[in-house]
Amino acid sequence: MSVSNALKQRRSVKHFDPAHKMTNEEFKHLIDHAILSPSAFNLQHWRIVRVSDPAQRQAVREAAYDQPQMTDASEVLVLCMDLKTWDKEPAQYWNHTGPEVTDFMVQSITGYYQENLQAQRDEGMRSCSILSMALMLMAQEMGYDSCPMDGFDFAKVGQIINMPQDHEICLILTIGKALQAPHPKGGQLSLDDVVLTDRF
Amino acid sequence: MSVSNALKQRRSVKHFDPAHKMTNEEFKHLIDHAILSPSAFNLQHWRIVRVSDPAQRQAVREAAYDQPQMTDASEVLVLCMDLKTWDKEPAQYWNHTGPEVTDFMVQSITGYYQENLQAQRDEGMRSCSILSMALMLMAQEMGYDSCPMDGFDFAKVGQIINMPQDHEICLILTIGKALQAPHPKGGQLSLDDVVLTDRF
After folding, report:
1. A161 close to B (CB below 8 A)
2. pTM score > 0.95 for this model?
3. B156 has a chain A CB within 8 A of its CB
4. How many domains does chain A have?
5. Contacts for B169 with CB less than 8 Å, ≥ 6 apart
6. Is residue B199 included in any domain, yes or no?
7. Is the ipTM of this complex over 0.85?
8. What's the domain range around A104?
């Protein structure tokens, strides 16, 4: 499926077929492509928690105000960010280059993130959100539908998945087979409202 | 181009052909598709500043530590978020539904963002980053290359584009024709490192 058609056909779906399962081969195909997404300094901040156990699914559903996607979707992926990738052997992300480039990159990485908690969080949000779009468009190509969700108690879901203290959740992506067509698309802002030339 | 091929072929490109220009028809095709991206509550937090004027390009380049993409790329898009979309007539995003749904959505929107500055910022980062991936993959399909950038002085670029106080920059996306093949791809974390089942 072309990128343009995937963008045109993608809609956020609320009702998934609870009987449909994604195969492990499909899941691997999905993830193998999505993790080719870019991340700043190649730090790959994303950590994907694939929630499969029915009791875990139910717990996440309760933390998400009982939204049925959390149990009915074929896949429920909690997209988390490791806020401290930059401080965990960053040279590993640049070990394919010569030592001079590696040293330069490690210095740049440390300079960018150290003592800037907001930059660490923003970066994780960027990386995981970019990854989420790769997952949504890949899902579309594979004949699936999806819904990115942030209507849940982030702290509770963090507890349910035993998330480390130095991680945060970006969003939950549900993927499955749509049971109903979604509602008509909401109003779209015009290009004049969202595109500016040179300055505001 | 298929989504999977666009993901496989996309690389962050550092050297663009400064002679190549994108036509307005191409630009419209690119943006028309990318803004079909999802955003929470359909708020479409993104505002895209298309930097075309050579003096503006040069100023952004200086604020980006003289990185040549800022003048050489065919398009330099500063992806900004309006942090206060939720407080600016939010009913306009739900005017296609009946009044009951509109009222419910406006209440939900206000409840989610009001008095939560971090949630406002996170949401803008999510929406703009998701949009950026739509732009990158569309660019790929259209025969272009791209590079998402956050190595610049955010405050300085905000001044250059006269950004309102209630906006923030997410990233700058450069799009153009690659002059050189990018460096070999950096080390990729294995699936075992990034995918967890049910919990950490």
Report:
1. yes
2. yes
3. no
4. 1
5. B78, B79, B80, B81, B154, B157, B158, B163
6. no
7. yes
8. 3-194
